[in-house]
Write a structure and sequence with these properties.
By secondary structure, the protein is of the alpha/beta class. It is built from 3 helices and 7 strands. The strands form 2 sheets. Strands 1-2-4-6-7 form a 5-stranded mixed sheet. Strands 3-5 form a two-stranded parallel sheet. A hairpin with a 2-residue loop joins strand 1 and strand 2. Helix 1 (about 25-35) packs parallel to helix 2.
Length: about 110
Amino acid sequence: MADERITISDGVLTLKFGKEITIESIYDFKNEVEKQSNSSEIKIVIANLSEALFLDSSGIGFLVSLNSRLKSLNKNMYLLRPSEHIRKTLELVRLISFFDIIEDEREIS
């Protein structure tokens, strides 16, 4: 969990990812994210991918699982400013439309 950070403000859980979203980089981060996102105070999760350049299958699985779980809890998840590399990866695996992508946090209604 070197580059990954979690912040909470006004019912919004923001996840800041580092350059790589891999099994190694999210191993410890994953448990903390799941615990925090289960809180009834959290209504929105923003995955800030602005620095991420690489996403492996474990990273994809983590984001898909988190988004699915949040939807089942009537919560929303947004991917914030994913790089072109991350967008292409999500397009390749046909998951780009599975996520709500935003370029600015003010886009959240």
